[in-house]
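Checked the freezer inventory, then went back to the computational side. Two predictions to log before the end of the day. The first one is the construct we discussed on Monday; recording sequence and tokens without edits.
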Amino acid sequence: MKLDYKKTFLIGFGFFASSLAWSLYNSFVPIMLEERFFLTTTIIGLIMTIDNFFGVVFQPLVGMLSDRTHTRIGKRMPWILFGIPTCAAAFILIPRARSLALMMAVIISFNFIMSLWRSPVVALMPDVTPSPLRSKANGVINLMGGVGSIIAFFVGGRLADWQGYNAPFLMGGSVMIFALMMLIFFVREADSRVHEDTKTPRQDKFLADLIKKIKEEHRLKKSQPPKNWQPGEKRSLFALLLAIFFWFCGYNAVETFFTLYATKELGMTAGAATTTLTLFSLSFVAFALPAGIIAGKFGRRKIILIGLVGIIAAFVPMLFVSNVTILRLLLLLGGLCWACININSLPMVVEMASKDRIGSFTGYYYFFSFSAAIASPILFGFIRDLTKDYSTLFIYSVVAFAGALVCMLTVKHGEAGTGEDHSEQLTEVNA
């Protein structure tokens, strides 16, 4: 089996658009809320959890609904075709809203619609990728997402300093439309109205005999009682999801409040603070694909554990550092370690799913990650309002990553399979 890099790269445009939009949103919305409406850090944190609340409520539901969506253009594309252009329109309007009520209405609309297409666009990758190749494929997908974040931080930060907040949001909306065009013209989902067993592929006799054999074995396998979950597998899944919750608590606090930390504690401009985060995303992008490849060789769990230890080692010195150059070097190290963690987490979750429940397990992943993103900004905002010190951001983050490390030490399942699952072979042959 070999990974289809071209198809995976094209699928990655959906995640590219999503990551770029969220990076711009998390960088500039907190600053706009404080500058324009003089809100407290706790209230800003509460507003910044709206997207995550919708993610918890709707993304698991949409993941399951997309599994059951049967259309000529596939299971996932109907959700994507509606979601991306509507999101782009709402996104462009965010900085143009001058009253708090209007801005809140646009923010709520944007976040609700975003929750309707993120699970489907992420589920496209495991839909078409065999189990042993998913870490590598997720590396490609996250590389695309990292490029989106780099564009958001570097170009968006400069546009904000030069032209104000309207310009980066207009750029973000335009990129979303471009990503949609790439998906429409170059990604073709199979007709989900046709069951796999009823397809009639036109191959030569050798392939036809092979397909017949695989289908027969697949039918025999399906006729047998489903394998029950072992207690160890359930414990591993729960521990993994809890680890995901903790490390996204640490990550989302930094992502949401770093620009405020840098402007208040280090005296940076909003654009310079946003541009500084480019270094984190740059090292994440540089190591996204290697993190997936290395995990395929040495194991996903081991690479995640190394990443957790490394990001703790990178964030602890930030408690004492005020030199911007050293801070940027530590962000480079942090991004590399975050790649080790993030690239391999979703493949570990969907590894425990049957093929017809990939969308549902993708939803579980997002339930825990978005639950963290709901709790984390509010909790840190409350801590900051009590301490009046943004530098506590990195104490909070280190504690969260340490909790994730403890959970991951108990995970024993979720590594790549052997590639002998005939249902996946059948999908590859028909593709």
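The second is the one RB wanted added to the comparison set:
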Amino acid sequence: MKKFSIMVLAAAMIFGAGQTAFAAASFLDVPGDHWAKDDIAFAAEKGIVNGYYQEWSGTYTFAPESAVSYEEAATMLFRALSSAGDLDAAVDRVALIEQYKEVLDQNNIAEWAREYIAYLLNKNIIKQEELSSFVIGEETGVPAPRNTVAAWVAKALEKDSAPVQYLPFADKSSINDEQAVYIDILYRYGIMKGSLNLDGAVTFNGDTGVKRSEFAAISNRVYRLQSEGNNSNADIFSYAAEQIGDLRYDKSADVVVDGEMSSISADRASSGASVVAGMVLPSDLKSQVLFYTQPVASSGKIDKMEKLSDDVTRVTITKDKDKIYYIIDSNTIYVGNKSAVKVGASVSYIADGVKLIEIK
């Protein structure tokens, strides 16, 4: 993380009343011990967040405790995606402003936010009917609740939703089924982790607003995820296995089940199989579901191999028209010529859950 001791003016982009964008900044109201200091500095460097110029002192403030409006949230999300090189280059963003002009006018969307909101509308990240909540009167921006921010960010990430959602929040009963899908994605990828209360409980607080400091952190995590590649530990995996006993849930996790775990949608493994989020987990996350299986021998054709890290590869194997996703790691045993295990090859293997024990 680069640190800057002086303020560098990079552009004269007006983001809102008195709000200016610049590449790197030291904000008067962000003390050195503020929890989000580095996140705010990094987001400012990338042009994702902006500061407020104070004419009386010639300095900048950030207002870290202020709530982010719908328009600001859309703008920051767009800029995080843009900085990460994750925008659709084929989209004419200027033309989109004209395409959505009528609905933007009807809902008094600020000029500075129109390009960003039009793009997110076009990508179905924001729904047109949501715009009526953005502004009160002519120009007063309304704070965006966490549930809405979670949905937008999750849609922008374009990650697979899980058939089970892990919701480790004390207020999980207030999260509806649709929200749970998005919040689970963000929790798995470390984008939104909830708030630690004084009593030690972690809550999501879906109906409350998001502070500017919090959105700076969210934007940075989106940027890093989209620019630096997948976090394989959070991906969805399917696997074929012989089940031992009944399907069992991790009793230390709060799990919401969407559908029957033993019968998977058509594009997933369907016979004796399961699709589970986070089968390979970082140390700070718990498994969403504990599925007892025993090793199974099988065969199929390799459709795809993706290098996830130096010693981990995700391999897609088609068996009886089902696509099954497995992990090959440093413990996998190759029988015969290792180089023969490649896309297009017919292979036989022994799998233990999501991991391949042996392949040839």
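For RB: Residues 232-359 form a domain with the OB fold (Dihydrolipoamide Acetyltransferase, E2P) fold (CATH 2.40.50.140). The two ends are 44 Å apart (CA to CA). Let me know if you want it refolded.
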